[in-house]
């Protein structure tokens, strides 16, 4: 490191994977477009540095996975970034950072082609846009598994002769005294 060159700070994820449930067990964990007053629930992903950054550093992020990101075109989704979803900004003098996601409960039972009851979000620290940070290649990718916790309810009945009978039925799902979804 020359006299005019500030020291580099290695940046990476503190943990490279995390598992969460789609719901936190309350009605507030639903997506607000599905249930009035709902907000989702936040999770924080910790970023570590081996030393405080000498200059504010901007790191670009890439996001992949099969969980759906909330966008203008995709209003009811599995998650959203609380702050900028394209960049991580670590201010001068800081020795850590964080990325916060809001996870939403929805009314869809989601299962992938491999019968996995979870969806994933993979966040990669892609490149340093500006500043004195350098990427820790061993801790540059983080995988979040969002486990499905919706209930599956099967209704079956016998018409009395070991065959299914004809039925006209309305179903509604109530949670904490509020209608969550229904079908007529």
Task: Explain what this protein looks like in three dimensions.
The protein is elongated and about 90 Å long. The chain is 0% helix and 41% strand. It has 184 residues and is mainly beta. It has strands at residues 9-13, 17-21, 41-49, 57-64, 79-81, 87-90, 96-103, 118-130, 133-135, 141-147, 171-175, 178-183. A 5-stranded mixed β-sheet has the order 5-7-3-1-9, with no helix packed on it. Strands 2-10-8-4-6 form a 5-stranded mixed β-sheet, with no helix packed on it. It is built from no helices and 12 strands. A hairpin with a 2-residue loop joins β11 and β12. The mean pLDDT is 84.
Which key features would you list for this structure?
mainly beta, 5-stranded mixed beta sheet
Helix fraction by DSSP (H/I, runs of at least 4): under 10%
Question: Care to count the β-strands?
Answer: 12
Name the structural class: mainly beta
* N-end to C-end Cα span: 70 Å
Residue windows where pLDDT falls under 50 for at least 5 positions: none
Shape: elongated
Major sheet, described briefly?
5 strands, mixed
**Secondary-structure element pattern, one letter each:** EEEEEEEEEEEE
Strand content: 35-45%
Give average pLDDT, whole number: 84
Number of helical stretches of at least 4 residues: 0
Strand order of the largest sheet: 5-7-3-1-9
Any idea what the radius of gyration is? Answer: 22 Å
Oligomer: single chain
């Amino acid at each position: 490191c020359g006299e005019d060159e500030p020291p580099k700070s290695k940046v990476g994820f503190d943990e490279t994977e995390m598992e969460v449930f789609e719901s936190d067990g309350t009605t507030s964990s639903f997506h607000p477009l599905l249930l009035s007053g709902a907000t989702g629930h936040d999770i924080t992903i910790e970023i570590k540095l081996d030393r405080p950054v000498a200059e504010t550093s901007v790191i670009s992020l890439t996001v992949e996975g099969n969980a759906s990101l909330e966008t203008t075109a995709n209003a009811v989704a599995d998650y959203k970034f609380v702050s900028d979803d394209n960049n991580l900004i670590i201010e001068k003098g800081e020795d850590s950072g964080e990325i916060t996601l809001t996870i939403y409960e929805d009314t869809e039972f989601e299962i992938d082609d491999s019968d996995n009851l979870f969806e994933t979000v993979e966040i990669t620290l892609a490149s340093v846009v500006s500043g004195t940070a350098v990427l820790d290649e061993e801790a540059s990718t983080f995988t979040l598994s969002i486990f499905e916790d919706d209930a599956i309810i099967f209704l079956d009945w016998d018409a009395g002769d070991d065959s299914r009978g004809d039925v006209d039925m309305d179903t509604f799902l109530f949670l904490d005294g509020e209608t969550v979804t229904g079908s007529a």
